[in-house]
Design goal:
Layout lengths: L2 H7 L1 H13 L8 H14 L3 E5 L3 E7 L2 E11 L25 H17 L5 E9 L8 H6 L10 E8 L10 E3 L3 E4 L1 E9 L3 E2 L9 H19 L6 E10 L5 E2 L2 E10 L2 H21 L3 E10 L2 E2 L2 H11 L8 E3 L4 E4 L2 H7 L2 E7 L23 H17 L1
Parallel strand pairs: 3-4, 3-5, 5-17, 6-15, 7-16
Antiparallel strand pairs: 1-2, 2-4, 6-17, 7-14, 8-12, 8-13, 9-11, 10-12
Length: 393
Amino acid sequence: MNIQELAKALQEDVVKWRRDLHRIPEVGMDLPETSKYIAERLEEMRIPYKKNVGGSGIVGLIEGSQNGRTIALRADMDALPIVEETRLSFASINGNMHACGHDAHAAILLGAAKVLNDNKESLKGNIKLIFQPAEEGPGGAKPMLDEGVFENPKVEGVLGLHIGGLTEGSRDGEVLVSYGSMMACLDRFKMTIKGKGCHGAYPENGIDPISIAAQVISNVQTIISREISPTDPGVVTFGMINGGFQYNIIPDTVVVEGTVRAVDQKVREFLAKRLEEISKNVVEGMRGSIDIEYTFGYPPLVNHPEITKQFVESAKKIVDGKDIIEMKKPVMGGEDMAYFINEVPGTFFFLSSHLPIDGVLYPHHNSKFALNEAIFEKGVALMVQAATDWLDK
């Protein structure tokens, strides 16, 4: 089959599916309208599927005419609680927004499903289609795995994509790959620092949790600057501080929340350990007390070198080799595709697509984020080519 021509012939359908999904963005695990729409398209294609897997997840199965292995193709389909300001003709009006491209991911996977199903007599194995909820949180990959998404038939490889502009300077249509660490973990912490409230004019009568919090924040940052190698990426960000109710009163407590990012599991565990140790020592040394809640979220996303190499060889059949870019360093965003790749060999790639609004290119998770739809056919062709080549090998 001429995969590029088949993908090109589906471009209008993929754009329509994406725009339909863009109008009905839903958040989290419960995506009734989104999953219903995808199920209807699979029914039209006569692809058998299961619904409500790990929440609103949908799993389709394309069985080839010849026995062989099974590869999973994954797309997330949830949106964000952002009011859209793109003024596009198909913009959302329900208070949520597909501000990260998941509508395009789902539409591209539908396009790939159509091509693969129409040509299943040439497939040497099976294609499992995974439409996943809650990538933006609380995480839909692990619940789907817990419910057996990689079983019956057993999945032996997995492929996923992310569209948009996740790296600076990327051009439309470029394919960005990594042969190892690609994205960071997504951990969260919450500290409740307890002191003793008093009047601000008489601080000696209390224990100031605001001053303590300031010292905690300052000292914790030395983990990054002095306790891990400069060549090991790591981030500790304090994103929320809440405490106090009056300008001249020292409060009893301060609550501090933040995130930890690392691309190596050992570094991740070290950061979590030292964050707790340093915080407790600082607080107790200043006569306070502290409760720490540390949540290990999505793990680091680490691609498998061999399946990435295979993907690159397939991608060269779809795009010019100069448009396949090896990432020199990972990005510090998180992605729960990592759970799938931790289970079986897999790879995740970026497909660059940008659409300026009012002459400005806006980043992901922005109310004016937009995509160049002309790139979608490349996404379809890349998924189909990689899947068929993997099954052939």
